Amino acid sequence: MKLAVFDFDSTLMDGETIEFLAREARVEDEVREITTKAMNGELDFFESLIMRTSLLNGLSIDRVNEICKNLPLMPGAKDTIEELQGKNYKVICFSGGFKNATMHIKNILKLNGEFSNILHVKDGILTGRVGGEMMFNDSKGMMLKKLQSLMDISPKNTIVIGDGANDLSMFKYAEKRIAFCAKPVLEKEANIIIKEKNLVNILKYI
């Protein structure tokens, strides 16, 4: 058995979930600025997550779910995952975003699992608060290490794919570290760099 772990936003999905939601809340510019700083490693991920989700306060959860069910997949996502699973890989998604999106995409792409965060809702409305499994800079690395231990999979048989600074923590636990259309901070630590926005390009390295 082998393990492939994909970031979600701007990796499996073409864009940033929180920016699609921010557009609905009319705070897209503010959220995008914070996201950019976080993905470049200029802002602590936890702080950036709290700041951004607070700006979504007041959005209807029904509207959030509708938006999350219509997010665009990254080109090549479906074919790449099918190919990896055919090669005995378990394919997992790690996301600093939200289960409203990752659970839907998990079902669409038939992923083996997903780990992400939960938007707090009261009376059908977002409160601006958030909790979950992927809240901190090192969350992805810690979760990857746990999965490897539980599944008895070595770093040699692990591939990780991401685009931003919050993917750095999982790079140390994988032999193949893929920076996909990534920020410079992640490219520096990668041993595979892909510039073209199509996930099938990773298959040549498998």
* Poorly predicted spans: none
For the record, the CATH architecture stands as: 3-Layer(aba) Sandwich
Question: Widest sheet: strand order?
Answer: 4-3-2-1-5-6-7
CATH classification class: Alpha Beta
Number of helices: 9
CATH superfamily: HAD superfamily/HAD-like
- Structural class label: alpha/beta
Query: What's the Cα radius of gyration?
Result: 16 Å
* Overall number of strands: 7
Mean pLDDT rating:
96
Which percent band covers the strand fraction?
15-25%
Structural domains: how many: 1
**What is the straight-line distance between the termini?**
14 Å
Biggest sheet character: 7 strands, mixed
Quick one: overall form?
globular
The helix content, as a percent range, equals 25-40%
Strand and helix order: EHHHHHEHEEHEHEHE
* CATH fold group: Rossmann fold
